[in-house]
Amino acid sequence: MGVENNNVVIATTWNENEVARIKTWVHEIKDKFWESLFIFGPVAINSKTTVVMVPDGSKEGWEESDRGDELRSKFIAEIEKANYGDGSSPWDYVEVGFGEFGQKVLRGNCKNVYGHDGYAD
User: Fold this and answer.
1) pLDDT tens, 6-42?
2) d(C-alpha 64, C-alpha 27), whole Å
3) Taking the CB of residue 23, how many other CB atoms lie within 10 A of it?
4) Residue pLDDT, tens place only, 42-65
5) Pairwise CA distance, residues 88 & 94, whole Å
6) Distance between CA atoms of 76 and 53, rounded to whole angstroms?
7) What domains can be seen in the chain, in order of their start residue?
């Protein structure tokens, strides 16, 4: 028996070229299960598109969980390739974990620039 915890990455951009680049990257995974963990939302207001990597469903310590962790890290690294020289990015992203470990923002690139009390730094 293992710990059941879920990790998900949510990434949003206005940049259509970046969405196309990430779609190509996902398609190159060449494994239907791992490819299926990526969902591309519709283009929304301000031309925003969201890409979600859903949880892999495995328990912590399983080989599949380790592979899911590795793929999430590769996805984030792929997003970060688009970073500009000043450190900004056309992407906003966050990785969150939730389940038997509780809930937590694990990493992301968004800062609370307006000091809104309802959001963490």
Assistant:
1) 999 999 999 999 999 999 999 999 999 999 999 999 9
2) 19
3) 14
4) 998 999 999 999 999 999 888 999
5) 15
6) 10
7) 5-108 (3.30.70)
